[in-house]
Amino acid sequence: MQRIAYLGPAGTFTEAAVRTLVDPDAVELVPAATPPAAMELVRQGRVDAACVPIESSVEGPVPTTIDALATGTRLQIVAEAVLPVRFSVLVRPGTTAVRTVHTHPHAAAQVQQWLAAELGGAVLTLTSSTAAAAEDVAAGRADAAVSTALVGERLGLVALAVDVADVRDAETRFVLLTTPCAPPEPTGHDRTSVVLQLANTPGALVTAMAELALRGIDLTRIESRPTRTGLGTYRFFLDCTGHVSDPLVAEALAALHRRCEDVRFLGSWPAASPDAGTVPPDPAGSRGWVAGLGGGRG
Ligand SMILES: O=C(O)C(=O)Cc1ccccc1
């Protein structure tokens, strides 16, 4: 039976995400304390895959996930799930005053106005997941947790408020990672991701991005993260539409490989949200035109 690690403990949004990506009855789900810990289990061969949150529509990237993707032995994204997130504020039955609140940083970012308005004086502590925060409440280590209704029911907590959100319709993207493998077959709605290490020269980033732009490849995400070797040195995470088997995406990756100090391929996989379209193999028939010149046509 395949073993799949996920950001636990049981009841996290990540568990809900992994359940949409694999048949939960056909795999063993293995909770891990943090995204890097889940990813390390894959690198050590102790699980077959890991599911981790990578970005949210409100707070942007999950830094621990993307840093662990850029360093250590390479892992590859093979699938993604985009989930709407709804928060409940959970307390133990009979709680009358809330002085401490625990939650995950991405949940905190999505309910900060609500917390300030409703629980203004409470001290916020960040936890490794929303379910871990709820466990803290159940164990008496916190008065309230920003978590999910489901975890509240499981732990015998009650909801002080449900459907709490500063921004309506927030979504989080989760990815399924394995050791390097042949990417899943192209579907026509795929996403490709790379991490670039660029020379510290004027125009290096613009030139790299131009390799996509000039081929009509849509850049769907760009992040920079410090390399931790000194101020002013960054890695760039680029997501684009298309699949490594699309000729234009392959050409762009080859050009990036020529231009960058290092390119780490993070995978090509079916996109869950509609921002990823197709990259036509020969827009305007230009390849056909060049091929024809060799035969005296055109
Ligand atoms: O803590 C969780 O339940 C997670 O899966 C991480 C997370 C936290 C907040 C929003 C989306 C994902």
Automatic annotation (TrEMBL):
**PROSITE patterns named among the record's database cross-references:** ACT (PS51671), PREPHENATE_DEHYDR_2 (PS00858), PREPHENATE_DEHYDR_3 (PS51171)
Q: What is its EC number?
A: 4.2.1.51
> Pfam families under this entry?
ACT, PDT
Its domain of life?
A: Bacteria
Task: List the catalytic activities from the record.
Answer: prephenate + H(+) = 3-phenylpyruvate + CO2 + H2O
A Gene Ontology molecular function term of the record: prephenate dehydratase activity
Domain Prephenate dehydratase positions: 3-179
Copy the pathway line from the protein's UniProt record: Amino-acid biosynthesis; L-phenylalanine biosynthesis; phenylpyruvate from prephenate: step 1/1
Task: List keywords of the entry alphabetically.
Answer: Amino-acid biosynthesis, Aromatic amino acid biosynthesis, Lyase, Phenylalanine biosynthesis
- Give the top-level enzyme category: lyase
Query: For the ACT domain, which residue ranges apply?
Result: 193-268
Region annotation Disordered: residue ranges? 271-298
Name listed for the protein in its UniProt record: Prephenate dehydratase
